């Protein structure tokens, strides 16, 4: 399940935007997310959460959610082999 978070404040770094999105997800769902889908322009590496580029996510939108280990592993494998 994903929760969409929007923040177009140019004065705020992407890391803080994602941290705030994760905090909002935790308040709402009472669990920590393990993935954030972002636009390529917003991609950064963060410890403790997988930040993944998704072409359908627009700039300043952050889709915070939970994916099981099998899904994450399949996505990682597809990314390294170029398949889907």
Automatic annotation (TrEMBL):
This is Uncharacterized protein. It comes from the Bacteria.
């Amino acid at each position: 399940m994903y929760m969409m978070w929007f923040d177009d404040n140019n004065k705020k770094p992407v890391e803080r935007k994602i941290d705030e999105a994760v905090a909002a997800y935790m308040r709402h769902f009472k669990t920590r997310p393990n993935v954030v889908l972002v636009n390529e322009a917003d991609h950064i590496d963060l410890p403790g959460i997988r930040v993944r580029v998704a072409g359908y996510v627009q700039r300043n939108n952050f889709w915070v959610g939970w994916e099981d280990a099998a899904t994450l592993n399949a996505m990682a494998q597809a990314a390294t082999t170029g398949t889907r």
